[in-house]
Amino acid sequence: MEFSGEDIVIDGHGSGTINGQGQVWYDLALGVGGLYGRPIPFCLRNVKNAVAKNFKILQSGKWNFVMVESQNVLVDNIYLSSTSDDFQANPGNLGNTDGFDTINSNNITIQNSWANVGDDCVSFKPGSTNMHVKNLTCYNSAGIAIGSLGQYEGVRDVVENITAEDVSLYGSRNGAYIKTYVGKRTYWPPQGGGGGNGYVRNVGMSAGTSLSTRFGVLVPYPDYIYQSSRTSTLKTSQRHLF
Q1: CA-CA distances (angstroms) from residue 108 to 27, 96, 130?
Q2: Is there a catalytic annotation at residue 119?
Q3: How many domains does the chain have?
Q4: Radius of gyration of the chain from Cα atoms?
Q5: What's the CA gap between 183 and 197, in Å, rounded?
Q6: Which residue, 117, 93, 83, is CA-closest to 33?
Q7: Do residues 177 and 146 lie in contact, with contact meaning Cβ atoms separated by under 8 Å?
Q8: According to the 3-state scheme, what is the secondary structure of the chain?
Q9: CATH number of the domain encompassing residue 223
Q10: For residue 199, which of 135, 165, 149, 138 has the smallest C-alpha distance?
């Protein structure tokens, strides 16, 4: 489901539900997180001045709620749950079942929402600027992520002015982290990549954030462990807790 345009209000009135029928994809993608064709149930693309509120997304085949090339968007009271009937094919073992993702977007607020997903609860991908997260609860996620960045050779990625407050993370692998590809390309996207450049600037998480995670704040974090010996060309500055 994809929406485009200006001055849009999408309101599920507390009972609206999108069922992604993700079980078949969880089974197919086991061990192949980037399997081509996995569907995204909800996307705002090239949207300006929009509100999306009061609905649920269940069993997303891939990312749950994506905003691409959009600006001035309020996301309020959204419930996300990506769980599998088969523990072996649980989204936590698959990857790419992110909760909220932003790409090349500006001035997005995500608030009063809940997510139980197997990957990033929120992922601020390349081109995400002026993002605000408030009163968000995440279960069994990879945490609040910036990236992945630097995946495409020669491409400059920028993420800046990101704030998160009153975020609760339970059973998550990380608190907040920045993930980058390395400075030299290894294989090709979507599974591999690297060689891009850019920067992350002015990122903050409030002291009111509650963490029950394996790791706290990681900067930077290599997107693939086997690449970690090579240096990323991404720069970071002005990271703070407040």
Answers
A1: 33, 21, 7
A2: yes
A3: 1
A4: 17
A5: 8
A6: 93
A7: yes
A8: CEEEEEEEEEEEEEEEEEECCCHHHHHHCCCCCCCCCCCCCEEEEEEEEEEEEEEEEECCCCCCEEEECCEEEEEEEEEEECCCCCHHHCHHHHCCCCCEEEECCEEEEEEEEEEECCCCCEEECCCCEEEEEEEEEEECCCCEEEEEECCCCCCEEEEEEEEEEEEEEEEECCCEEEEECCCCCECCCCCCECCCEEEEEEEEECCCCEEEECCCEEEEEECCHHHCCCCCCEEEEEEEEC
A9: 2.160.20.10
A10: 149
Which residue among 101, 119, 157, 223 is the active-site one? 119
Peptide bond between residue 123 and the one before it cis (omega within 30 degrees of 0): no
Question: What's the average model confidence in pLDDT over 161-171?
Answer: 92
Which residues are registered as beta bridge partners of 193? 186
Q: Copy the structure tokens of residue 151.
A: 């995946």
As a whole number of angstroms, the distance between CA 235 and CA 148 comes to 13
pLDDT of residue 187: 73
pTM: 0.88
Task: Please state, in angstroms and rounded to a whole number, the distance separating the CA atoms of residues 119 and 100.
Answer: 10
CA–CA distance, 107 with 75 (Å, rounded to integer): 11
Q: Give 172 or 159, the one with higher predicted confidence.
A: 159
Q: Residue 134 belongs to what domain range?
A: 2-241
Encoded tokens for 125: 């991908």
Amino acid sitting at position 223: D
